[in-house]
Amino acid sequence: IGELTPNYYHDENALKRIYDVLPNVKIILVLREPVSRAYSHYQLSSTNQCEGMTFDQALQKTPIIKTLSLQSTFVKQVISLFPSENIHIQIYDNLRDKPQQFISEIFSFLNSSKNSTPGARATT
Length: 124
Hints:
The chain has 124 residues and is mainly alpha-helical. Helix content is 51%, strand content 8%. The protein has helices spanning 12-21, 34-45, 55-61, 63-68, 71-81, 92-97, 99-109; strands at residues 27-31, 87-91. A two-stranded parallel sheet has the order 1-2. The longest helix has 12 residues, at 34-45.
């Protein structure tokens, strides 16, 4: 069973709740170069909170864009709570440029077969 979301690792309370319930959970972090991450956030927000703003204006008026790009702060929170052997960090560029290697490393970290199909369930 797995969960995919970018919304937990920057919320210290969420991380603590996850740890309280699942202290041995495996965590996969996919980090992105900070400026590209911020620009992507800006683009996703351009139809709502950043509508009509340039990227520079959005950085000034929407501090969360810059804050969430300071990924090392959030990685430190994860590392402080979970055992290091349960944390796997990947770089977004590897997903884009070397997808087979990217997924192979994740399967290896999860001790799962490369032949596994996401969403597939074992039958008895």
